[in-house]
Amino acid sequence: MSGGVDSSVTAALLSEKDYHLSAIYMRNWDTRDEEGTDYVGCEWKKDWEDVQRVCRILDIPCEMVDLSRQYWNRVFEPSLRAWETGVTPNPDVWCNREIKFGALAEHTPSNAWLATGHYARKAWAENGRPRLLRAADKSKDQSYFLASIRENSLRRALFPLGELQKTHVRELAAHYGLPTAERPDSVGLCFVGEKTKFSSFLSQYIQPRPGPIKDYLTGQRYGTHEGLWYYTIGQRASLGGMSQKMFVAEKDIPTNTVFVVPGSDHEALYRSSMHVTGFSWIWADAPPLDWCQPTGFRGRAMVRYRSSEGEFCQVKQTLQGETVMTFERPQKAIAPGQVVVLHDESGEWIMGCGTIQRTFLEEPAQRKATPCRELDGHKPKPAPRPSGSPTPKVPWVKNPERDPSVQSWQWWCVLPVY
């Protein structure tokens, strides 16, 4: 239980069934400073008090478990390293696997159910294995955050709110007389706190690393940023003196540069395919048979929380072990470091997830990119072409500093595949 309305109603619904219930409140963040006094962060004391009040009404025993050390080591520190490199991680996704269905599950009896207030559903397949499904209330569906949990964790999970609408949940909270009935939904990362700016919080752990903010197409410099972790792809960049709003199209990690474009729907904000690393199937030993075939298989990819039902894509594995997802239509603001969740074609069954490593304007196999270098201040020369072949028209990238499709080179030309 978290002290919110969802976990409170979950407890109330289960209290009416033939279960032996015990409530657990996880304290995942230590808000004490070096002097041992609390500072602004997670309002854990208020949360814990609300959990105890609800449990007294429902006559359920409760306990608090301090998992702050496990959270720091398994979730926050890896996320911090990702932010430092300039990508945008998803701590909440890994918290469910490593803490709620990891460290907390280890604290409970192995033959016990673990019920949460997530808006998600579980169903049993014909082969007797559990499937994670989207919630009935699509506007509150939280299956995205559960996509990394393992099959044995899903097997013992219960999601009593999966078939309910959020409005009904609040009505039930009032019906049971729970003190959390009118409590607002929590937003953002728990360890940041509701009154603290995310960038201000991270600045306590990451040293500033200033770099240029440049125009994506022309390379013109507009300003200076204090660190790539201040920005994510698709975010508005606050730049003074501009005639129109500018948005982040790319973060170039090797040069520590933020590239921006005018307008929130600029074509440079869209990508057609992406490489995904560390892909984890919920059924780890049974990925789709077509996954390793040249054409792959068709599914739906959700690149961020609440991004509709996921977008149709073709999914396949490369010889290097990477998962490649190619969209049927370009997608906006795909951020490396974020988690992509894979659904089946129906959009209901969540099959697994991975971390977006890099993105492309087009299918990588459809073009051959050859690194070039700047010669005497002139336009780079293309690589030699085979003898006897016609002279190709080379589509030079508009920005001579960056090819938006590639992450590693400063100078690129795009050549046809012969």
Summed up:
Helix content is 19%, strand content 26%. With 418 residues, the protein is of the alpha+beta class. It has a six-stranded antiparallel barrel with strand order 12-15-14-13-16-17. The chain has a five-stranded mixed sheet with strand order 8-7-11-10-9, with no helix packed on it.
Task: Annotate the secondary structure layout.
Layout: H1 5-15, E1 23-27, H2 44-58, E2 62-66, H3 68-85, H4 91-107, E3 114-115, E4 120-124, E5 130-134, H5 151-155, E6 157-158, H6 166-175, H7 198-202, E7 211-215, E8 221-225, E9 236-237, E10 246-252, E11 257-262, E12 270-281, E13 297-302, E14 311-317, E15 323-332, E16 339-343, E17 349-360, E18 368-371, E19 412-415
Parallel strand pairs: 1-2, 3-6, 7-11
Antiparallel strand pairs: 4-5, 5-17, 7-8, 9-10, 10-11, 12-15, 12-17, 13-14, 13-16, 14-15, 16-17, 18-19
Helix pairs in contact: 1-2, 1-6, 3-4
Give structural notes.
It is a single chain. Mean pLDDT is 83; it is low at 33-37 and 364-418. The longest helix is centred in the first third of the chain and has 18 residues, at 68-85. The protein is globular, with a radius of gyration of 24 Å. The relative contact order is 0.11. The chain folds into three domains: 5-175, Rossmann fold; 208-264, SH3 type barrels, CATH 2.30.30.280; 268-364, Elongation Factor Tu (Ef-tu), domain 3. Helices cover 19% and strands 26% of the residues. It has 418 residues and is α+β, with helices and mostly antiparallel strands. InterPro entries: MnmA-like (IPR004506), MnmA-like_C (IPR046885), MnmA-like_central (IPR046884), MnmA-like_central_sf (IPR023382), Rossmann-like_a/b/a_fold (IPR014729). It catalyses: 5-taurinomethyluridine(34) in tRNA + S-sulfanyl-L-cysteinyl-[protein] + AH2 + ATP = 5-taurinomethyl-2-thiouridine(34) in tRNA + L-cysteinyl-[protein] + A + AMP + diphosphate + H(+). Keywords: ATP-binding, Disulfide bond, Methyltransferase, Nucleotide-binding, RNA-binding, Transferase, tRNA processing, tRNA-binding.
